[in-house]
Amino acid sequence: MLTFSHRNLMKVISFQWTDEWCLLELEFCEFYSLREILEKRDVDSEFVNLMIKDLLSGLAYLHSRGFVHGDLKLSNVLLAKERDQLVVKLGDLDTARPIPSKFSLQGFYTPEIMAPECYLKGIIDERVDVWSFGVMLFRIFTGDYPFGHRDTFTFEQIRENVKNYSFQTFKVQDIPVPYSTLIEACLEPELKNRPSALELIEWLDFS
């Protein structure tokens, strides 16, 4: 991770591994996490577009280096300013793991954002991050998790909601196009049909 270099990933300055934990020293981001920002105010389409562009760019780079983040959520997205420009950065890289990896219900994970294949096949690859990205976008536009939250659902109920999910069950009429289309693409239950971060960048045409 020390060799990772991308403006949309928090820079890893140093790290230490033991049999029980990993300690990362990361660059300082002077602004709030995305979760804190959404709790304080509404965000406009310009900010959402910046967030989508920057996060997909960071994910595509991370995946190209053979790693999956594995815990993409609002609290792990931070804001910084570089050369008077706002930059969205993906943090909490201690959850990153090689592609592919095994998924265990006994390990640490965030049930609200995990993709169906994690529960059905016990695997994690780069498209898990794409699914989690779709969950995050859904929450930005609706204020809710699509499959429930631990405040009102058990872990088992959330897992069953994910495994039995169909996009048609969601009410997305209040989510404008193209964001609703993007969310539907990310929340594709079939792993083979779910786009990669790079494919989403090309589809959205941020150039």
Helix content: 25-40%
Cα shape: globular
| Number of structural domains | 1
Sequence of secondary-structure elements: EEHHEEEEEHEHHHH
User: What fold name goes in the CATH topology slot?
Assistant: Transferase(Phosphotransferase), domain 1
Low-confidence stretches: none
Radius of gyration over all CA atoms, rounded: 16 Å
Proportion in β-strands:
5-15%
What is the terminal-to-terminal distance?
A: 28 Å
Explain what the structure shows.
With 207 residues, the protein is α+β, with helices and mostly antiparallel strands. It is built from 7 helices and 8 strands; from the N terminus they run E-E-H-H-E-E-E-E-E-H-E-H-H-H-H. The strands form 4 sheets. A two-stranded antiparallel sheet has the order 1-2. A two-stranded antiparallel ribbon has the order 3-6. It is globular, with a radius of gyration of 16 Å. The relative contact order is 0.14. The mean pLDDT is 84.
